[in-house]
Amino acid sequence: MSQTAEQKQSLWLLAASPLMWAAHLLLSYITASIWCAKLSDGSHSFVTVQRAIVGYTILALLGISIIGWIGFRRHRFGNASLPHDDDTPEDRHRFLGFSTLLLSALSAVATLYAALVVFFFTDCY
User: Fold this and answer.
1) Domain assignment of residue 31, yes or no
2) Whole domain around residue 79: which residue ranges?
3) Span 54-64, mean pLDDT?
4) Percent of the chain having pLDDT more than 90?
5) What is the count of structural domains for the chain?
6) What angle do CA 82, 64, 73 make, to 5 degrees?
7) No. of H helices and E strands in the chain?
8) Coil, helix or strand at residue 4
9) What pLDDT, on the 0 to 100 scale, is given for residue 110?
10) Which of 88, 90, 75 is nearest to 14 (CA)?
11) Is residue 58 included in any domain, yes or no?
């Protein structure tokens, strides 16, 4: 049970998926705004921005899914039944894993919604 030692636990994993979503959103909008401010004269294609946003989306979803998988593995630790509300280190470990999994799912949906902009805008105007 050394995996559940509370002094080795961190809440950073819980916040990692929303941080990846926020970084994806920030990179997408910064890329589009710089492109439109500097290169929107018509001689440069907006497809480059769309490809960059798709790349950011793939990387963000990959990172979010890895964190979600880690959260799922923590949630499934041991053989306890739901709900994980006992005052034990193992149940706190499982609860944080479940919370991480749910935040990862929410962050994945938010990342996909932010990436939908690629399909609606074809130029800067």
Assistant:
1) no
2) 45-125
3) 97
4) 43
5) 1
6) 35
7) 4, 0
8) helix
9) 96
10) 75
11) yes
